[in-house]
Amino acid sequence: RKASPQTFPRMVRTSYAILFAIYVITMCAGYMTFGDTAQCNILLNYHPHDVLALLGRWATACSTLFGFPLVFNGAREGFKNAAMALDQPSISDPKNHVKLVVVMLSCACMLAILVDDIKVIVGYSGAVLGSLLVYICPPILYANILRGILD
């Protein structure tokens, strides 16, 4: 079949439906295996010397190790763009690149050391980002739009 803008939405819906099914099947299998004693990280439920669980832990570690630079790059660029939007161009200055990366990595490492359970981070980030998107970003965007119209 030939790809076209008309077939793209159907392809996206189909892809998401397949991913949803895979996630639901995996979650149900994990819950049916361990029941209410299932831990947040399903790999922690297995015996430490289980070979397949060990391979799963290694795959997760590799995914995190090699995926982190991609996520971090996006976070750094987003932070720089937000700083520019908030009239803080010095953060985006190329001469401050190393300082910014060191500060962001230090914060990430300190969080990883201080927080035992990822649920805390996910809960706070969801609450903070949700509040940011609902209550803080719209007035900032509106103020910038008005400033652009009035100038």
Explain what the structure shows.
The chain is 77% helix and 0% strand. The chain is built from five helices and no strands. It has helices at 8-34, 51-85, 89-92, 97-114, 118-150. The mean pLDDT is 86.
Summary, kept brief:
This protein is an all-alpha fold and 151 residues long. The protein is built from five helices and no strands.
**Topology as H/E string?**
HHHHH
Shape: extended
In angstroms, what is the radius of gyration?
Answer: 21 Å
Number of strands: 0
First-last Cα distance: 50 Å
Mean pLDDT: 86
Q: Approximately how much helix is present in the residues?
A: over 70%
**The biggest beta sheet, please?**
none
Low-confidence stretches: none
How many separate helices?
5
What fraction of residues sit in β-strands?
under 5%
How does the helix and strand content classify structurally? Answer: mainly alpha
Q: What keywords describe this structure?
A:
151 residues, mainly alpha, 5 helices
Give me the secondary-structure topology:
Blueprint: H1 8-34, H2 51-85, H3 89-92, H4 97-114, H5 118-150
